Amino acid sequence: MWCFAEVTYKEVNSGEGCSYEIYRIWTAEDECGNTTVHKQTIVVNDNVGPTFLKIYRPM
User: Fold this and answer.
1) Which of 18, 39, 41, 42 could, after both became Cys, cross-link 22 (CB 3.0–4.6 A)?
2) How far apart are CA 47 and CA 24, in angstroms?
3) pLDDT of residue 52
4) CA distance 32 to 6
């Protein structure tokens, strides 16, 4: 028998500006009441300056 699962997550951000972390806690619960939890950490550290891809000149 197959039980379909509902997946949800809660998210918390830590830090600010160009360096911060995102914490997500994923929870899956199936129709039978079984649950599982997964913790995810995303680290953002923007330390690269902007660049131009192409400079357009007026005609």
Assistant:
1) 42
2) 23
3) 81
4) 11
DSSP states along 19-43 = EEEEEEEEEEEETTS-EEEEEEEEE
27/21 Cα distance (integer angstroms): 20
Tokens representing 16 are 């600010």
Give the model's pLDDT for residue 1: 62
Residue 50's Cβ-side half-sphere holds a number of Cα atoms within 13 Å equal to: 3
Instruction: Take residue 50 and report the two structure tokens written for it.
Output: 């902007």
Express each pLDDT in 1-53 by its tens digit: 677 899 999 999 999 899 999 999 999 999 889 999 999 999 999 999 988 88
Tokens of 19: 């360096």
- Give the C-alpha separation, 27 to 39, whole Å: 9
